[in-house]
Design goal:
There is one protein chain. This protein is an alpha/beta fold. The protein has a seven-stranded mixed sheet with strand order 3-2-1-4-5-7-6, sandwiched between helices. It starts with 8 loop residues before the first helix and ends in a 5-residue tail after the last strand. It has helices at residues 9-12, 30-33, 36-41, 67-79, 94-102, 123-131, 146-167, 179-191, 208-216; strands at 55-61, 84-91, 109-113, 137-143, 169-175, 221-226, 237-241. The protein has nine helices and seven strands, in the order αααβαβαβαβαβααββ. It has a single domain (4-27, 48-241), classed as Vaccinia Virus protein VP39 (Rossmann fold). It binds S-adenosylmethionine. The site of S-adenosylmethionine has 22 residues, from β2 and α7.
């Protein structure tokens, strides 16, 4: 996969005249359609680990313009009233990160452009952990990102991504997209004369939810919580490792 600096501007723009026809889920107007309040209402304190430290260090992968990251920060303050909460929020699209940064009123949230699938880009993640004297994130959020990783990196890429986040996260809160969303995404870009090249090669398809759940709960992590389906038919799952220490 190309590093963020190598990705062409055209890859990061939407196709044709439809702002919903995007390659990475980098919608410019995402939060006009996906109410952040409803997303937060789907969270439960039981999804989160008990505080072990005065500092809680979190990662939000695919933060878009940051509205959900900021709402997560405020929610975390209610779960961990005595903790210093720090969040690294990353997104592949530098324009979205710029918007998130300009409107950021929280010094405890750092927004950085980073393609999680690129080794060089990922150095910023290790650097952030080092700067907070942590070897792993206490909580990693991964909301509505797995499909985009999967469509652009194939089955192997999806599994590599899940193993990667397990390697540096004590707790992972994940909201995977079901297969139906993939068909809609492909239909949408096709209408604009493009296509997800790997779409037809994917072997993980209608079973994507169960494969994600199985991979997440293998070896190091166990499922600790699963929400009801949200109004837009997505579940939020929480997985925790007892092995990693902060
Ligand atoms: C559908 S949006 C979800 C935004 C937010 N997580 C939420 O649920 O409200 C998916 C985001 O993931 C980002 N993204 C996709 N592939 C990525 C990658 N390889 N590395 C980092 N961010 C990525 C997109 O740019 C987009 O902003």
């Amino acid at each position: 996969m190309k590093s963020e600096s190598e990705i062409k501007d055209t890859d990061l723009n939407f196709y044709g005249s439809d702002p919903g026809a995007v390659k990475f889920g980098n919608f410019i107007n995402y939060y006009s359609f996906h109410d952040v309040g409803e997303r937060i209402n789907n969270l439960r304190p039981q999804m989160f680990p008990a505080p072990v430290d005065k500092q809680l260090v979190c990662l939000d992968i695919g933060c878009n313009t940051g509205e959900l990251s900021k709402a997560l920060y405020m929610y975390l303050q209610t779960v961990y009233p005595d903790c210093d909460i720090q969040i690294l929020a990353i997104d592949i699209d530098s324009t979205l990160i710029e918007r998130a940064t300009v409107s950021n009123e929280f010094p405890n949230i750092k927004f950085i452009t980073c393609n999680i699938m690129d080794q060089n880009d990922r150095l910023c993640i290790q650097k952030y952990l080092d700067s907070h004297q942590h070897t792993a994130f206490d909580v990693t959020f991964c909301f509505s990102v797995t499909m985009w990783i999967h469509l652009n990196n194939g089955d192997e890429g999806l599994l590599e991504f899940l193993k990667l986040i397990k390697s540096f996260s004590k707790t992972i809160i994940i909201e995977p997209q079901p297969w139906k969303c993939y068909r809609n995404a492909q239909r949408r870009v096709k209408k604009s004369g493009h296509s997800f090249e790997l779409y037809s090669c994917l072997k993980i398809k209608s079973d994507v939810d169960s494969i994600i759940e199985k991979t997440m709960s293998e070896d190091t992590h166990v499922k600790t919580y699963e929400s009801e389906n949200s109004s837009w038919n997505r579940r939020v799952l929480s997985f925790s490792s007892m092995k990693l220490s902060a």
